[in-house]
Design a protein that fits this description.
The two termini are 25 Å apart. 42% of the residues lie in helices and 11% in strands. It is α/β, with parallel strands linked by helices and 218 residues long. Strand 4, helix 8 and strand 5 form a beta-alpha-beta unit. Strands 3-2-1-4-5-6 form a six-stranded parallel sheet. The protein has two domains: 148 residues, Rossmann fold (3-Layer(aba) Sandwich); 56 residues.
Length: 218
């Protein structure tokens, strides 16, 4: 019987489910050097933010189309692969009745590039929520609150899986048990910003999460 403390799993994509952060760091690092040489680590500053917000916040309007075209071309040749253990973990909790959703700041165009590399991606998830579906990006909690809403779940029944600081903050602000992965930031940086830190999906299990949710206070 499904334990009501873990009914919904909400997954970030880049750096959490899929090993793509390094590739994006190359692209946005180049954009940062070209347009914002005064900003250190530009590629880290924009993590977890929708493309629309990145363009509006950091680039002149006359450059938006050019940058978007460059990004489209870059994503079209990117290699998207699940991080170790992610696919097995999603399949396992799905079999146990947990609803699984992607909650990403990426847009549908980017997700099409991902599906090119992982054609069965959508089969693993009950819903895929993209940037077009919410007006405020992480760290605003709206995207994760929407994730609970589409399944009719309470926030305490949801678990968020994230790597970026903005995403971790969004999960916690939504009032959800938030699991952080030290893929984008070191463990010591994120451990105070989430409910639990794990190094890999191989370290997670349905039973382990239920136990942690019962014993760890947010």
């Amino acid at each position: 019987m499904l334990d009501e403390r873990f009914k919904v799993a909400l997954f970030d994509v880049d750096g959490t489910l899929v090993d793509s952060e390094g590739q994006y760091s190359v692209f946005w690092g180049d954009m940062g050097r070209r347009y914002h040489p005064e900003m250190e680590n530009f590629c880290d500053v924009i993590k977890g933010t929708t493309l629309t917000q990145i363009l509006n916040r950091y680039f002149p309007a006359e450059k938006h189309e050019e940058i978007e075209e460059e990004l489209d071309a870059y994503e079209a040749q990117m290699k998207f692969e699940f991080v170790d253990g992610a696919e097995d973990f999603v399949r396992d909790i799905h079999r146990r009745g947990v609803k699984c959703a992607v909650v990403t700041s990426s847009n549908e165009k980017k997700m099409s590039s991902l599906r090119r590399c992982i054609p069965y991606f959508d089969e693993l998830f009950d819903r895929v929520l993209t940037a077009e579906m919410f007006s405020a990006s992480k760290p605003n909690p709206d995207c994760y609150l929407l994730g609970a809403k589409v399944f009719g779940a309470k926030v305490e029944e949801c678990v968020v899986f994230e790597d970026a600081l903005t995403g971790l903050e969004a999960g916690m602000r939504a009032g959800m048990f938030t699991i952080g992965f030290p893929t984008t930031n070191p463990r010591e940086v994120i451990e105070s910003r989430c409910s639990l830190v794990v190094d890999s999906f191989r370290d997670l299990s349905y039973e382990g999460i239920v136990s942690c949710k019962m014993n760890i206070k947010r």
